Fold this sequence. Notes:
This protein is mainly α.
Amino acid sequence: MSYARYLRLDEVLAAQEVRSDAHDELLFIVIHQASELWLKLCLHELRVARDHLAAGRLRPAFKMLARVARVQTQLAQSWDVLATMTPSDYAQIRPHLGGSSGFQSHQYRLLEFVLGARNPAMLEMHTGAARAELEAEMARPSLYETALRALRAAGLDIPDRAPEGATPPSDPRVEAAWAAIYRDPETHWDLYELAEKLVDLEINVARWRFAHLTTVERIIGYKTGTGGSPGVPYLASVVKQRFFPDLMAVRTQL
């Protein structure tokens, strides 16, 4: 077993199939392929972390959640590399992209669904196995719902919330439970640490989305994205989307 064989490098390094003579097309492909690999790792870690939380094993989940936050930092920084591409550079590549768009990334949509933002309308752009995987995820409790169940198991007053659908707005009872944890961390240390791990995820997703927004704005301005995606207006609308609204809202109370 060699390094190249173990990593299947012949296949990996042959997967960057450029379709133009543009110098920056390889950059464009590598950034997006690498991002999909990081997303695959994020999904792997988040799903197992959710299983640990569901079983009441909070501490093993913390390492996985911390790892995802680090990966999100890598994802955000990748936009800095892509931002070295100018509008002129991208104009040489764009005609070769056809109807393809990052908006179609089912792994990115899965990440949103796992965390708890589940907009059923987003299913419409996916078919086959990708759509089936997204639909299956919608039937499971999200990471945040699973975290709230851990609070309920600890005796805190947490209302039942459906696992499907978009993340609901902040709930006063859930805010009160998080406030109790933050005001007495010694009594609720594991839940206190869980709260901070979730906030790390929340903030790092926001940073990643903002970096995406500014990179797209820098390269294509307010033009419609490939595949008919709305581009900058859509990206701006999701920067402030919250996966864990109660955890962010409670900070105003403390």
